[in-house]
Amino acid sequence: MNQRVVHEWRESQTERLRLAHSGTIVSWTELFVAPTGFEGMTPYVVVLVADERGNKSYGQLVDFEREHLTIGQPVRPVMRRRAEVGHEDVVEYTVKYTPIL
Amino acid sequence: MKHTASVIGYHTTRYGELWNKSLYELLAEAYSGAIADAHMEHGSVDAIFLGNMLGGVLDGSLLLEAHLAEGIKSHIPMYRVEAACASGGLAFQMATEYLSAHPHHTVVVVGGEKMTDVSGGEISRALATAAAPKEQRVGLTFPGVYALIAQSYLHAYGYDERHLASISVKNHAHGALNERAHFQRAITIDEVLESQYVAYPLKVLDSSPISDGASAVVLTGDATRIRTAQAAVSVLSSETATDTISLAQRERIDTLQATVCAAEKAFQTAGISRKEIDVMEVHDCFSIAEILALEDLGFWKKGEGGARALQMETARDVGNNLIVNTSGGLKAAGHPVGGTGIKQIGEIYLQLTGRAGKRQVARHAKGLAHNVGGSGGLAVVTLLGIA
Q1: Which residues share a beta bridge with B214?
Q2: Does B151 contact chain A (CB < 8 Å)?
């Protein structure tokens, strides 16, 4: 079996992420130069979010206005497409964040 | 380790886009130059420590020790050290540990990188191998990770992009005096502010370049060699510390705890105070990194860095006692990642021995070199002084 598929399967077996209902932006940046796979998305915003339990996680910010790009902005997790079409044309999904209005 | 080893020779290639030279040619040039500077014969080197990050990732070449052995025709022990952008600094630190076990030996610490043979996307991917997988998965790059650090810092202390830009302006002014620097021209605050964003708030001119190059120092514990050397500088201490690979796992993101820990150990081991340091090379991979370095090394209080950077307190021509990044830093001198940590030590060696030419500082009894891997997952702090 393709080794990358094995690697991804193993990660899916071992990674459990309990998402909080909401969190706040600890920091944010807007990427203008992207790594491979994200070139078609520039510019895009990545936020570092702290949830109610104090755990921090990364995600892209979606469905926002410029005024939401501020440290302390409340956000909630949503499921969205991760990047460009992934391995073997599988569309990969991931957690992103959107402002709580 | 205290006063057991001394640097007695140094050479660096020019840093820049060196398309006509391979990694091994660069390493061999730095190695040969360093032993010539120390007035030594090739056969009197007992071991080589080799700092390199991307050989193996970019060109599929591992066992770099054997590649170098073939180039310099030698059978001596060689140790390749990888710690991302701190590969050179950690190679030097490990060489000092080796000399504790072999106190009369003489070693060469050489580091270098070949980075401009591949596309921007490929080099970004290669460098990102030293970032946390969760950072890579959301499309973060190294500039992106440092941008998160910068945003947090600017927000916490009320600074803006001008405070960051001041670091690049100062380091380019220094780099203009360094004939081996990648960029040898001065820039203005406005030029930095008008350059393109890479990862907001960091712009092209807040960022160190992708460079080719190699640097080497000769390090010895042999008392006779030290006594007869043309120029010798004692290693007062060389310490390293680590931290999480992911920013998200750190208690706060506007400080690099690995730097704090390595600096504390280094000053404690050397038994000197920060006030005794005259000249430093610190890890300015991005402008924000130099501000944090001055704070985390214990020279500036937390939160003061932005204001003090804007005043350009550490510029050579301002006349203060603590001068930072006379080589031009990573920003202007360039950043071939495996070579940087050794170039930093070499620059301090030149300054302390009064051989830094146009960029020589007036007071030069003790110096510090600070090298960081990744976004602060590892740091090395080395203190040097005139014997």
Answers
A1: B112
A2: yes
pLDDT tens profile B245-272: 999 999 999 999 999 999 999 999 999 9
Confirm or reject contact between A100 and chain B (CB < 8 A).
no
Number of CB atoms found within 10 A of residue B268's CB: 11
Is B85 part of the annotated catalytic residue set? yes
Task: Reply yes or no on whether the pLDDT at A72 is more than 90.
Answer: yes
ipTM: 0.92
Is some CB atom of chain B closer than 8 A to the CB atom of A36? Answer: yes
Tell me the backbone φ, ψ of residue B198, rounded to 5 degrees.
-100, -50
pLDDT at residue A14 greater than cutoff 80: no
Q: How far apart are CA B48 and CA B105, in angstroms?
A: 11
Instruction: Pick the residue of B123, B138, B157 with the most A CBs within 10 A to test the interface with A by mutation.
Output: B138
Radius of gyration of chain A (CA): 15
Nearest Cα residue in chain A from B155? A71
The pTM for the full model equals 0.95
How far B140 CA sits from the closest chain A CA (Å)?
A: 7
pLDDT in tens, B144-188: 999 999 999 999 999 999 999 999 999 999 999 999 999 999 999
CA-based end-to-end distance of chain A: 46
| Contact residues on chain A for B144, CB-CB shorter than 8 A | 29, 31, 46
Q: pLDDT at position B122, please?
A: 84
Instruction: Please tell me which residue of chain B has the smallest CA distance to A54.
Output: B251
Residue from A27, A38, A71, A87 to probe the interface with B (highest B Cβ count within 10 Å): A27
